[in-house]
Amino acid sequence: MRTQAKSMDNVLLGAVIFLCLLGVLMVYSSSAILATVEASSQTAYVQSLLPKLILGFVAMAMLSRVSHFRFRGRPALWILGLSILALILLIFPEGFTTGGRGTRRFLKLGPISAQPAEIARLALIVFIASFVARRDDWASSGWRGLGWPLLAVFGTAGLVLIQPNLSSALLIVLLGFGLLFLAGQPIWRLAVAAAPLALGAFLLQPYQLRRVKLFLEGQGSGDLPYQVEQSLIAVGSGGWTGKGLGEGLQKYFYLPFPHTDFILGVVGEELGFIGILVLYVLFGIVIYRGLRIARLAADPYSRLLAAGITLSLAMNVFLHAFVVLGMGPVTGVPLPFISHGGSSLMVNLAAMGLLLAVSRSVRPQSVTLRRAPTFTRSPSRVS
Question: Is the Cβ–Cβ distance between 314 and 22 less than 8 Å?
């Protein structure tokens, strides 16, 4: 019988709550000027975010109390199938979709608007964890065992790519391959499976190729894209302690998308290096606790689920920083819990609910082995 923990991981829960509160403050500070121009109200973006934050907390609370084993098996397949269906709907009639910047990334059903790519990423984690854990010989079955997981990864990423949303598609591929590696697949086999991605370069949109070209050229000449220049000015002008909350200048239409894609620049300008340090210490706590939960989990499904959720969060956290600091091509990756974005916030909070649910069923730490546990299923079944 599985050993149930007496309570969830309260350290993880506390760090997530602090991040969300900090996110509300930074969304208000970074968007007040823009909201005044667009909606004649400084709090317009915060007002649109708060209902989604509340729904996200409700989802986190509910999922943390429900056994994560309920999503294993057939439910995992249904969740992935519905998320893929939502991605397919983006291809069809304009009435179902809404977008921005010339994209079709949001599914609109009446008053509800959601970004299926965010949902698909979490669905993929649940599916791969469930698929691998149900097969004793999966890691040793060679290419035969990779068929369905690779189809799920490439199918989901391909549908996201044609929106177009290159950054989310790449994150989905990296996340899927990372999970397959943790599940026991050798890196050489995954490298061969990833070879077709090289052909995907020919499918990139002109603006995506231009972003990559500008990044590569800028690394040699110092001629950085406009967004990155303004972001670096914001971070650099903040110094150690920042100019003070609400006192930043780059959000006055110098820094594009200050409340979403480049919100870390506003954090650096207004709260300084210390503010960024505190922010990433909180992220570090969430990532550490997630990895700890994965290490202590008693069965392969729980371990892969916890590891996948943590890996997904970590990739978003660091990729956002790479873009803001000019270390990667400009992409539209939000900073989890901090950037304005209802779909991202609700899905990340739901993922934290699943992670907290796993934390309720971990083995007591006193009986864990010193060696790192494997993520693949052992020959003996966990009853």
Answer: no
Q: Tell how strand 106-109 and strand 97-98 pair up.
A: antiparallel
**pLDDT value, residue 100:** 54
Between CA 354 and CA 72 the distance in angstroms is 12
With tokens 């970590």, the residue in question is: 314
CA 145/CA 296 separation, integer angstroms: 26
Torsion of CA 60, 305, 323, 218, to 10 degrees: -170
- C-beta of residue 23 within 8 angstroms of C-beta of residue 341: no
Whether the CB-CB separation of 125 and 309 falls below 8 Å is answered with yes
First to last CA, the chain: 5
Answer for the pair 306, 358: CB distance below 8 angstroms, yes or no.
Answer: yes
Q: Kindly state the average pLDDT of the residues 354-382.
A: 59
What percent of the chain clears pLDDT 70, i.e. is strictly above it?
A: 80
* Cβ atoms of residues 269 and 237 within 8 Å: yes
* Alpha-carbon torsion angle 16, 300, 365, 64, nearest 10: 30
Within 186-225, residue ranges assigned H as helices are 187-193, 206-221
Please state, in angstroms and rounded to a whole number, the distance separating the CA atoms of residues 100 and 90. Answer: 13
Strands (E), 247-290: none
CB 175 within 8 A of CB 308: yes
Contact indicator for 233, 311 with CB cutoff of 8 Å:
no
Find how far residue 29's CA is from the centre of its chain: 23
Which pair of structure tokens corresponds to residue 376?
A: 């693949």
Retrieve residue 242's tokens.
């920042």
Segment 42-68, tens digit of pLDDT? 888 999 899 999 999 999 999 999 999
Does residue 264 contact residue 321 with C-beta atoms inside 8 Å?
yes
Query: Apex CA 287: angle with CA 283 and CA 289, to 5°?
Result: 115
- pLDDT by residue (tens digit) across 5-32? 458 899 999 999 999 999 999 999 999 9
